[in-house]
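Journal club side-thread
Mid-discussion, someone asked how the predicted structure for our own chain would compare to the paper's figures. Pasting it here so we can look after the session.
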Amino acid sequence: MARNRYAKDYRLIETWNEKGKLKVSYEYIGDSYHFTADQQTVKSTKTKLLLLCLAGWAGFLVPLFVYASGMHTLYVALPFIFSAVPLTLLTDLTVSFLQMKEPLEHRHADRMNSRFPLAALMTALFPLFALCGQAVNLFMQKPLVSGDYVLMAGGLLLFASGALSFGLREKAAVTLAD
């Protein structure tokens, strides 16, 4: 049986309504957390992360609509295609970050302090592996088509969005409230 790792942070409240039905609700009783940065920095970081995620998706999707000979090579295609996994996680974490308001809960701190940096780092590394594979193709003097340049530009954009998101991890960090 799977156990919710945040279950001990909540208290179950059972009340009876006027119709005699049991109403169950939960109250957060865990530690309070807050952002390490000031509110203005957090607000600008939210905007930057949203724009970086949109740029990352553009860098991922646009090369998929053009013919690129590099996508016929496994060591280029697999890392590029699998970069959608950390990009999806980064986007999910960014959307959660956009909705967070102080005081924060333990689950918010866990998402922003441990999962967010890992997702941003992986979003940067996967397209970097694809770009290295494309460089191998260049050194092997495989003929390039115009779509290969679109693939490289998209990979660079995806790498940049992941790297810049990783750079913003300190501004999105959460700490225990005093």
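Post-session note: Strands lie at 10-16, 22-28, 33-35, 174-176.
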